[in-house]
Each structure stands twice: as C-alpha cells, then as structure tokens.
Amino acid sequence: MGKKYSIQHEVAYYECDINQTMTFPAMLSVVIKASSDQSDQLERGTEAINQLGLTWVITQTEISIDQLPRVGEKITVVTEPTAFNKFFCYRSFWIYDEAGTQLVKIDMAFVLMKIKERKMSSVSPELMEPYEAPQVKKIQRWEKIEPVENGESQLYHVRFYDLDSNHHVNNAMYFNWIIDVLGYDFMVNHTPVAAKVKFDKEILYGNDITSVYQIDEDNGKTLHEIRVGDQLACEANIQWKTK
C-alpha cells in the first residue's frame, strides 16, 4: 500500500442538506481536497501535473456509508493511494468521527488526461514514486452498475458554476443531478448506505443533460443515468434505508 495522509475538517452547515447531514457533493469535495493536499506535499500537485499538460480525472467510485457526517461534527479524512497500473490509479478514503469510528469508506479510480487533446495518458512509475503505491498489472474490476430499464427523466442545463478549473463539470455536480430528481419526500425519508458511480464522458459548459432515474422501492435502491443527447455520461446505483 502507499503513503497515508489525513486532514481534519469541521462539517459546515452549507455542506449539509435539510436533514443536517453531509451531502454527496460536499463529501466528495472534502476527500478530494485530502488527496490534493497530499499531492502538493509530494510535489505532485495540480500545478506540477498541469505543467506536464495533464490532469487527473475520476472514472469510478464506490461509497460505503455507516453514518453520514453531521453539521458541526469534526471529522478526520484519511486517504491512501493503494495501487496503479499503466492507465489507472486507485485511491481509498476513510472518514472518521472524533471517537475514531469509521463513518464512510470511499474507493476511487483515476486516469491521467491530456488537457489539450482530452485523451487518456499512460501513468509513469516516476510520477507515482513519491506515493509509494505498488505498481500492478491487473485492472481492478468494479461491481456492475445496473442500467435504468423503466425510468423517468428531468432536463438540466450546465451552468458556469458547474465547471471546475479543468473546464469540465466537477464530478461532485453529477451527484446534484442524480439526487435532485428523487424529490423532497424521498430524500427526507431515506438515508443512503452505499453508492457506486461510473463517469463515462466529460460534460461541458452549455450542454443540456438528461437525468434519468428509476426508484426500486422493493429493493431499496435507485438507478441513475446522466445523458448528453444519446451518449451516456454517468451511471450510478444508490442503496438506501428508510428512516
């Protein structure tokens, strides 16, 4: 395994929803900050990577939730780069409360993208050396994401503040489109316990996207797709428990 790194964070009210629990976008932003801080410390930060004409992109994530962090709670985020191969880098995150109890576990896969060409780049051992993560040949296999078969949909337009410094939609924004369609009543009566998300395609400024969803009450899950025209940009499954 690689070098571990941790940050402390106090959950702010603006990072929480009406249930006073941390939102998916807020959690994603905080854990990504932990990995960014570690990269800065190892001289592999955003500026250094950008100078090579490259940027990191999340391709897949799996989230396991024992309990969502609550407003005002002081949490510790621990991250560890676990492995890399020619094209993918794998990183895990843990969120703990003040007593050291694990609240959330997140696994992610990243690729390096060429900024100008918007194409995937190979990952060099030299780039990854400071992280001390083992180089592997095997590509990690993720749990299959069930497709939407009989869904409803809602349209959204990509706004300026939906973009990040890479000029594409921030990964956290996908969760806003995924969650928003479920509605007020569903969200106040359900708590997420697990999620798996695959990011298939970049979404750009000015795109009109369709958030397609299916609620499977019998199995306590929701199925999601984000589409740009006929192209699949993101797919997700979320498992829920009733309050």
UniProtKB/TrEMBL annotation:
Q: Which SUPFAM superfamilies match?
A: Thioesterase/thiol ester dehydrase-isomerase
Q: Which CDD domains match?
A: 4HBT
Enumerate the Pfam families for this protein.
Acyl-ACP_TE, Acyl-ACP_TE_C
Q: Which UniProt keywords apply?
A: Fatty acid biosynthesis, Fatty acid metabolism, Hydrolase, Lipid biosynthesis, Lipid metabolism, Transit peptide
Which part of the chain is the Acyl-ACP thioesterase N-terminal hotdog domain?
Answer: 2-131
Q: Name one GO molecular function term.
A: fatty acyl-[ACP] hydrolase activity
- Which segments constitute the Acyl-ACP thioesterase-like C-terminal domain? 146-241
Q: Which family does it belong to?
A: Belongs to the acyl-ACP thioesterase family.
Name it: Acyl-ACP thioesterase
Q: What is the lineage of its organism?
A: Bacteria, Bacillati, Bacillota, Bacilli, Lactobacillales
